[in-house]
Predict the structure.
Amino acid sequence: MARMSAEERRIQLVEAFTDLGPAWVRWVAACLPMDSVSYARLRLLTALTCIDNQTMRQLADSLAVTPRRITALVDALEQDGLVERHPHPKDGRSTLVNITKDGLKHQAVDWQQHQAEVGVAFGDLTVDQQEQLLQISHDLTGAFRSRLAGRSASDGLFCAPG
């Protein structure tokens, strides 16, 4: 079997990750407990267990979603009694979101169950493969973050080839 050129390898890696991304998202969603909120809502609850009383902007930034999406998520969670909103004591333009006791219970059970279920797929890999994947994942995440930090919003949506 002939060795691939660097360009062919990059193309195959892009194609592999293009397949991996949607498969991962479907797997993560499929592993939610039957009576759980959506994965996006569960992530928001989890963010509030780490730091409670966050502004909508802080939540949007920490979850890497738009302010409009955060509003929809908080609206739904508030309807279910899992979060509450209240005015920011120092900034009248901001709203703080906090997790309720029911939200804490829901998050604790569902997140732990979800993480365990998602993790089952990694058991299909050998221990060596798991360790390699873990290292590569950390390295690649760092590379993505570094490259993103070097871009401005005006750089556009598309990467130049090469």
In short: The chain has a mean pLDDT of 89.
